[in-house]
Amino acid sequence: MRRRDFVKASALTAGATVIEGCTDEEHFIIQQVRQTTLPGETVWRPGVCRQCAAGCGIQVRVVDGNAKKIEGNEAHPVNRGGVCALGHSLLQELYNPDRVLQPQRLAGARGSGSFEVATWDDAMAAAVQAVSGAAPDRIGIVARDGTGLTGALWRRFASALAAPAPTFLEAPETEVERLAARVALGTDDYPHFDIARAELVLSIGAPFADRWRSPVHYIRALAEMRRGRATRRGRLIQAEARMSLTAANADVWLPIQPGTEGVLARALAGYLLESGGVAAPARQRYERLFPSAPPTLAEAATACDIREDRLLEVAEELAGAENALVMGGGSAAGHTNGLFNVTAALGLNLLLGNLGSPGGVFSPTRVDLGRALSSTGAATPASRLAERLRDGAVDVLIVADADPVHTLPGGFGIADAIAGVETVIVLGSSLDDTAVHADLLLPISTELERFEAAEPGTTAAVAALGMTEPVIEPMGESRHPADVLIALASGLGGGVAGQFPWSDFEEVAEASIEVELARLPGGSGADASDFFDEALERGGVFGEGDPAGAPPGPSGAGPQPAGGRFEGAPNDYPFVLLPFESVRSGTGRAANRPWMQELPDPLSTVMWNCWVEIAPADAEELGIHDQDLLRITSPQGSIELHAVVDPASRPGVVSVPLGHGHSGNGRYAEGRGANVLTLVGSSLVDGTSAPAWAATRVHIERLGEGELVRFGRSYEDMGHDEVIPVGWAPHEPLRKTNPEKSV
Amino acid sequence: MTRWGMVIDTDRCTGCAACMVACHAENNIQTVGEVEAGKGRAMHWIRIERYYEGEFPDIKVRFQPVMCQQCGHAPCEPVCPVYATYHTPEGLNAMVYARCIGTRYCANNCPYTVRFFNWFSPDFPQPLERQLNPDVSVRSAGIMEKCTFCVQRIQGAQDVAKDEDREVRDGEIRTACSQSCPAEAIVFGDLDDPESRVSEFAEQARATRLLEELSTEPSVIYMRGGR
Fold it and tell me: Could you give the ipTM of this predicted complex?
């Protein structure tokens, strides 16, 4: 039963005893209401997880109006029933003790974090006044993601105001990966990789079993590749400077020198071209992309700092595999030469002849429900917004469900520049690093409390659109962010209000479905209203079958081969800094959730804190022991962190997880660790507007002893029983080593 | 007769830790905070053990999820002076929280270190307590706890099957860790049913159990092999 019907029926049940002659439909609805509200009974309701851009489908267990547990929706093509750690922890965003549940108005100095409660009427009146009083070109809009209906609504709003297009805070490498796919494969977005049916996957930088793009989807595909077929087990080769969770799961790990990923891909292409197994059309297409002669494996071995015999083994395996595919992205996209690196990686697929074939690469499938709302895909890059903020060219800044102060590089200077903005309006649910700078903080509902329509940020095998009704009633006075936007537009009146004729987001979704019906999977010839109701019951609109559609191939010449540049001279700043997303902290959204704070990182096993991973040889040279407090300094700034001496770290490279070091954000998050992005400068990836977040060098100084809470043991304390000798027999039972005793 | 068992395919497991949070959510497990966690008191009924193999650059990592192995000959059971931990007819090492007096003998005797003691009563600041699972007791200070194979889910499925006058079907019961696992690395079922998926796995050459030489007869089977 739809929410609207529910509300109607709730009103009816109140007076049901005095209403004579209820119609059958009303009677049915009343019964439904009673059935779904039995005390203590479990009801499962479909939802959409919006904790990252993947947009997995979920099922939520509801008892007595409270959400108890999240499981995966097996019908959703992205996750097929799986849920990640972050997805589970959505319940602790919903019921967070520090959640903001009433509109707040600044009651002290800007940035002091001192607010007073306001009514929604007053808060909206203030927001309308601020927006209507500002010159359109002096308005800035930041929203969380540009996909789907919500992104389209923000675009439409900016365009109706004649303000600059919104800035969407997608993962910084996403733009690079998208552009590289366009150049190398001719697709309009990052393609679908049929990992599950591949025999060999070479991933150049893409940490797809970590928190990158669509973790549940990729982890499932990796498991299927290995153990989903009775006949053979697929293999994964990971070329990445850091031992990520993906590299930890690889059959072969190539710990490559950061910034040389493109050289590796080009040298492998050279081997494939020389080996004679490449058909002439494929060769021509590749040479259109990269006309110059590729480097040899020997040259690549020197540049990438990997033994030549290991490169040769990988090249031979790639050339000999029946169904091989190559992915690229992640940190390879975060260097200044990221576009070259990823284009070179994706271009290898042309030579492998896997476009549109099982175990290969497919064109992305997008529903793009929002295209009727906003025809332009326009967006202002974060770097451009930062420039506008620094130049004092923004009077009113609207931030919706995003934390630009925390998630953009320190070199962008957002934290300082935001102080110069006249009015900052934040739609959020916590007092995060951006919200503390707000004049108005408007509380928004989580995805469990609102009508949701979300497209996966990364395409699965078939088209998908998650669409669900609210799973539970909203907490406090929180409202749907899109409903706040619609109310703001209405309040502004005139042409802007005319562009937003709907009463709420559900109406927008229903209208959009009606317009796009014929194009949607199963929509052709269907009744729009029935289609909509069935989609809500199922949890969305999902395509079926195997992936189809071969990428068209290169759209022209690729970027010129280039090496990566790093901020900071090697003599002053000897280490390359690699920020990364840990499954326990992501980009910082989950920092105030106790489950996630107490979750050990799978590799370092650190809990409740942030750390820096350093190779044993480097640690020894600098006199650093595990847990020591270090000062990490880049040309941009400096932070203090505890050391994790990591046997899998590449010497000369240090890695720090993102998402720590919040200035506020609640009792579990505040004051823990430091934000590694404050060390990152303002460099952009060449040929794009994306920040080069893996292009910084740092200096490390030991400050003294420290303490780091771990679930397992440190490398120094392990002795030998946790380090298994090479040649360990696969069927021999593993000796279990005890982590710290609990008693 | 039923004997509940679990199969974990370590070649599928990526160590993503989704099972750990799923377990916390399902079983009302408290978080203890940084200070207590630093004393080794974090309560993860299921944990991901991480092993390194070799040295850089030829270094590999293996992950192994470990929870209560629900031993057939459980070292934890005979040492409990008040019979708070006992063996159920279906092969579970059950905990009767109301009987537990917190001697911690069971935890000392467990070779897998999967038992956790509540040093303090849990604190779920409002409104976090609204998430608590009504099917699972919240344990107070002085009580020992551990993985139950999600016994509340087993009982729930058995109730439904009884109402429908049938046996519980293979795959009908999924523990929280198994249901959440993106890689489908964890399978739960009846080891005494030769047709069940867990039995099928148990017979394969890749199957092994932890610390077999102790003759604890664990009900958790690990599938080895791969990388």
Answer: 0.98
